[in-house]
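Quick one: structure for this chain?
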Amino acid sequence: MDNNRPKNHELEAEFCRLTGNQYAVAVSSATAGMHIVLMALGLGKGDDVITPSMTWVSTLNMIVLLGAKPVMIDVDRDTLMVTPEHIEAAITPRTKAIIPVHYAGAPADLDAIYALGERYGIPVIEDAAHATGTRYKGRHIGARGTAIFSFHAIKNITCAEGGIVVTDNPQLADKLRSLKFHGLGVDAWDRQSGGRAPQAEVLAPGYKYNLPDLQRRYRACSVTETGCA
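Got it. Here's what it folds into:
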């Protein structure tokens, strides 16, 4: 069973249709997705990342492991999510990313948060681990920018473990595909079935974060069959 195709491509295509975004990259977990997104954006020592205090530890772990600093801000007592006001108060010249969480499947105030990102030139990375099937003003979460979804066992759709990143940035998508599979320029399917050359060109140090096709075969890991479409 190949570790990158063709079931991965089916899942990625489903998520592009679901969210309306342009690119999708399946990964071994949402944590893996967060790791390589932050890495692809060049996060490192001396950088700050704004994230809510109400979040899972994996986000903080990935920030710290890259040498950056998590700046945890308070959440609204009613929604349990960050507010644009709290985010803006935490922005400094060191801020290199903003990670809002769509908590418990409810959408964060995306228009205002993206407006802040555009005003200050800071990337917004949506933690959409809970948000498969969630819509904001008529559009599915992940319709623009970059968002990370989870297929963990307790999520809306699952393949026991896994995740997917959607983005409208083609350069970021290419970096993620390389970083998730050893930093290679081609994946296992290309190497074995497509006659691609060179067979193992390493573009940068990478990880083994691909989602095995075997996991994608779980019926529960289907946008259409679980009613999330």
